[in-house]
Write a structure and sequence with these properties.
Layout: H1 2-15, H2 40-48, H3 56-59, H4 67-78, H5 90-101, H6 111-114
Helix pairs in contact: 2-5, 4-5
Length: 140
Amino acid sequence: MTFRLSYLLLLAGASIAVPALGVDIDLPPETATFKPSPLPGYALVQQHCMSCHSVHYVQTQPPTSLRSYWEAAVKKMKKPFGAQFPDDDIPAMVDYLTRVYGAERAGATPVAAAHPPAAKESATVQPPLPARPHRAGHAR
């Protein structure tokens, strides 16, 4: 009987809602900036991308990234991540990212020369997916 009573009290205690504590977090100001460009996508990436993440996210992408990589990355931000920008802005944003940070930037090493022939990237390259932990008993 004592066990049952203890168990019921435990369940009742677990169901009591703990009020959320309001916490103020002051983040330091952003110091990284997008590389200035006369391309229309420059203003668009400043407006749309920095509302969700830092410029460092873009700066750490592979510098040999093809246009298809950047297009997939921008579309991924819209769906499934839910970024709020018009579909009409995507081509200009992709053009800016490819020409300023990717394979089409001035002085970039051509992708064909940067990779051995067997490792050439195709036009359907997708951004890498985040690593998922392996679960025992499941095939990879």
